[in-house]
Design brief:
The complex is a heterodimer of chains A (424) and B (333).
Chain A: E1 2-5, E2 8-11, E3 16-19, E4 22-25, E5 28-32, E6 43-46, E7 51-54, E8 56-58, H1 74-83, E9 86-91, H2 102-115, E10 119-125, H3 138-143, E11 148-150, H4 159-171, E12 175-178, H5 183-186, E13 191-192, H6 195-200, E14 204-205, H7 208-224, E15 227-230, H8 236-247, E16 252-257, H9 284-295, E17 301-303, H10 331-340, H11 346-353, H12 355-361, E18 376-386, E19 405-415, E20 418-422
Parallel strand pairs in A: 1-6, 2-7, 8-9, 9-10, 10-11, 11-12, 12-15, 13-14, 15-16, 16-17
Antiparallel strand pairs in A: 1-4, 2-3, 4-5, 7-18, 18-19, 19-20
Chain B: H1 7-11, H2 29-46, E1 60-65, H3 71-82, E2 86-91, H4 101-112, E3 117-122, H5 127-134, E4 140-146, H6 152-166, E5 173-177, H7 184-196, E6 200-204, E7 220-222, H8 225-228, E8 234-237, H9 253-260, H10 264-267, E9 275-277, H11 290-293, H12 300-332
Parallel strand pairs in B: 1-2, 1-3, 3-4, 5-6, 5-8, 6-7, 8-9
Classes of the chains: A alpha/beta (424), B alpha/beta (333).
Chain lengths: 424, 333
Amino acid sequence: MIKITNGRLVDPANQIDSISDLYIENSQVTAIGEPPIDANITQTIDATGLVICPGLIDLCAHLREPGFTQKASIASETAAAAAAGITTLVCPPTTSPIIDNTAVAELIQDRAKAAAKANVLPIGALTLELKGQKLAPMAALKQSGCVAFSNNRCTISDSQALLRCLEYAATHDFLVIFNPQDNNLVANGVMHEGATSSDMGLVGIPESAETIEVARALILVEHSGVRAHFSQLSCERSIKLIGIARANGLNVSADVAMHHLFFTDENTRGFNSMFHVQPPLRSQLDRAGLLNALVTNGIQAICSDHQPHEAAAKHAPFAATEAGMSTLETLLPLGLQLVEQGLIDLSQLIEKLTCAPAKILGIKAGSLAVGATADITIFDPHAQWLVDESSLVSAGKNSVFIGSELKGKVMHTLLAGKRVYSAS
Amino acid sequence: MIESIDHNSSQLNDAGQLKHFLTTQELPVNILNEILDTANSFLDMSSQQVKKVPLLRGKTVVNLFFEPSTRTSSTFELAATRLSADVLNLNISTSSASKGESLKDTLMTLEAMHADMFVVRHPDSGAAHFIANQVTPNIAVINAGDGRHAHPTQAMLDMLTIKRCKGQFEGLVVAIVGDILHSRVARSQIHALRTLGVAEIRVIAPNTLLPKDIEMMGVKVFTNFDQGIKDCDVVGMLRLQKERMNSALLPSESEFFKLYGLNSERLKLAKPDAIVMHPGPINRGVEIESAVADGPQSTILQQVTNGIAVRMAVMSMAITGQLNAGQSQQTSV
């Protein structure tokens, strides 16, 4: 039996925020506060001054395997997740081959199990090859462990095809995740369309590229009755559209990628390709809208939208680089900055990183109730660490924080009661 | 938290001298004036019998063109030759340079040949900044056009043309007309004109050829040419690429010419002594009428002459700036 002692236990799923001991046996939480009667403690973790919370759940992390192992692998990124205090990773279907058949879904989970550092839940493709024409075998993919379905950023421009996808998913009560983006409006855009893109001479992606898809999706979600989630929203207007739909009784949820809460299109000045992301970093107003939605719960969860790249992918003039940041290991430290800024409290942050995403996915996780699986993160909210190429475990060193000190350091990560990471 | 890059830190040395010339944005007015004054002195020289000066003797200038260009590359070549530099012209089609590392590899290969200056044209915005950040210290980078971002030597030769025709910038009303959206020339002109202190900068184009929120750059937007050209001192026309007709930006060349082409009638709405500029090559009958292009108010050929002088000026200034940057580095060690 493991005893985690003297830490601040923050478990929003059970409204707990207090200094409490936690007991773990056989991969489960066996007691909170008082030890169980026949306690046989074999290991004690001293968590004095540390926070104990459910293992974080990341709604979107690109692991790059199969297909793009020059960038990263399931082994490398699950190890990074463990170091980041993330115990469950949801990976989008944009692997190569695409997750539109059970073999790929199973391969990903087999490799994750072999690595044994984090749970990996694949998202199945909504349509074959993400082409937006034929339905992917959703029921079979679900059986093989897919937790939801999405066409990622590959627009299904045929609205009838999209409606059919949603109706089929609704038949089986599958969750559909939207990364709303109209690729005709994106065209060859590489950043937010606005004064900054005009000034820099970079091709802009208009706000309407996202909002038009949010609006269309909302209409078809209502039509089909499917369970839907909007992921990585970047525009304030998208939040407003979803807010109106929710006010009208539509049960849809939304998340935002952590970096959209910190950066804007202004950061791309100077052509730093590390800020090349999709959806693009938008205006100051959009960022303020996203932060506001986080506080008012218009956005329920925060994800990393982790996209590791090899160095060469970022080593070119801005428009010629690949989009995406390596963000797993900065997820919690940045979240703690939101707490430090007084926008949300620690419990709200943990909620958006644990039980809220679990609820969106409909999975049993993100809780430390007695009997729950012991996926646990223990971190020091005050400890500083230097982000550099050697301290990042992820194979993707494409972080804008390279060379910066961040506050908030994961000390231990437990996956089903087993220690998968301890800070050295 | 994360500072965006200050343009000047990448193009000026510690003493505030030009060491790269990447953009006219945020360059201090004294540097712009130094470029104009230096160029002016070279202009006087170009009418003499011996047209060469030894300012770049023993230096190697590499013209690195990732986009086809005849005028810009030949005026740079001529400018470098008149400064007594050795010139290497490299035309690399971007299809063969499959982006990313290959650009870096190209640079490393050229550095190994001990080049002193890269003159770069590239289809990607920010390419010149990228190259300036990549090259080893003491190699100067001159931006000869990057994507839609900047074409600072073109803008400065236009400034020189304005200055020589008008004497000063104060009080001038300048209109830039045509495809603003895709134009690196327009962006560099706007930044330079603002710093040099003209009274008003106007941009004239249909909405499909205007970048979003362009007013934020400090310009007045007109979609009606006749209104926009009224009382202008300078009319800067832009080249319209023919392929714009295929991308739902414009219905036809003839409709564009009707609404946004400069003809003699329209030019009468500007001040009587207004000058007409064009970066060339011109599309006669698309953005400008032949009578205007060849007329007394046109400065198109003067611009070409001024272009050589401006390029000589920035090349000699950047080499000096690099030399001084190198020395201050050595003394600080």
